[in-house]
Hints:
Elements: H1 2-9, H2 13-24, H3 32-47, E1 51-72, E2 75-77, E3 80-81, E4 89-96, E5 113-117, H4 130-139, E6 144-148, E7 173-176, H5 178-188, E8 192-213, E9 220-226, H6 236-254, E10 263-269, H7 277-286, E11 293-299, E12 308-311, H8 316-329, E13 333-336, H9 346-349, E14 355-360, H10 382-400, H11 411-420, H12 424-429
Parallel strand pairs: 4-5, 5-6, 6-7, 9-10, 9-11, 11-14, 12-13
Antiparallel strand pairs: 1-2, 1-8, 3-7, 4-8, 8-10, 12-14
Helix pairs in contact: 2-3, 2-6, 6-10, 8-10
GO molecular function, one term: carboxypeptidase activity
Domain PA: 91-184
Main location: endoplasmic reticulum
Amino acid sequence: MAEWIAETFTSDVGWDHLRSLVDIGDRMAGHPGEREAMELTRDALSDVGARDARIDAFEIQGWDRGESVVRAGDTEQDCIALPRSPSEEASGELVDLGYGLPEDFDRDLSGKVAMVSSTVPDHYERFIHRREKYYHAVEAGAAAFVFRNHVQGCLPPTGSVGTEESPIGDIPAVGVSKEVGARLARRFEGEDVTVSVECEAYPAESGNVHAELGPDTEEEVLVTSHLDAHDIAEGALDNGAGTAMVVEVARALAAREEELDAHVRFVCFGAEEVGLVGSARESDRMGEDRERIKAIVNNDGVGGGRTLSFYTHGFDALGDAVEAVSERFDHPMSTVPEQMPHSDHWPFVQHGVPGYMVASESEGRGRGWGHTFADTLDKLEPRTLREQAILLTELTVELADEDTEVPKKAPEDIAAALEAEDHAEGMKITGDWPY
């Protein structure tokens, strides 16, 4: 064991791939940079010894960001359009809805401009996704949507609106910094403001990158990430680090391939940031073959903090596997048993497939630097990537072991858990409820 650990702890493969990804710049879904990231990742997986590295391309709705502004009084306030916002201008009375909790929308917002925070109170039982807040505003009749960052630093947040059936949203939507949001609330709440968005939607292409290791068995373990990022930053943490982790784990597993009792497939999905499009496509492609998947290790937000955090979605055996690796290495790893329906594991987990959402613990709630101009490489370090690659490599071997059993769940059990954890209302309003 010591040899592969030493090789992983001194490896530059994952970190070099992360640097290559962030140096592309714009990896927005459907943009040329996303295609470049696919090709770089395909080649990197092949170079570390994974077999049949390939790209599965598919069509998506592309979107280009233009100029946006919030005009209030005689001022123009800085903002950025939220991806898949329609190209429109709307005016109305500014209403600050605070955190934008479901109960905050229990009012008539007809013709008004609704502003909400990007976070929820510390005591609140669940995180409320941006898209849920957006569609609550749409249902309440709002004319426009303003998404206010809760992280200081003059950083307007981005993040998509729209649904799979209707990719372009219903009302213009922009992100503003914490500071701009505070200014709007202080000076202009109750007054008419104008939200203006210029953008373009068009047919485009994305894709998923696949590669394989291990024996040709009936069961397989998926090690996944997403390749795309928002166009405003490098996308280092979200999710260059996750894709770099997949490459580093593939390198380590190639040296341990004889230890694998089950087939391991690496999948780096495209178009995650615009509605989990790539992973939904792969889940649909597999159909009943999803029964082959023993477990999914989905990396989205790894490397930001020293301690890995695993959402286990109520699969006790997944928690047991994390605990076994944590004890084996005497290294802290945390588990969260609840559902997390917001990354590329979800199109599989919703059908009862065991899956992790793997991130890293950080201070505060929400994405932190993610989805802002500040999601840059300087926030990360090679040591953390290497340490976590050791743990995730061992976890993958543990999951692939023939003695590790991970029972699947019935989809109705996942639905019941979502209801019990108060996710169902939000998923229904965003069109993400699959049951």
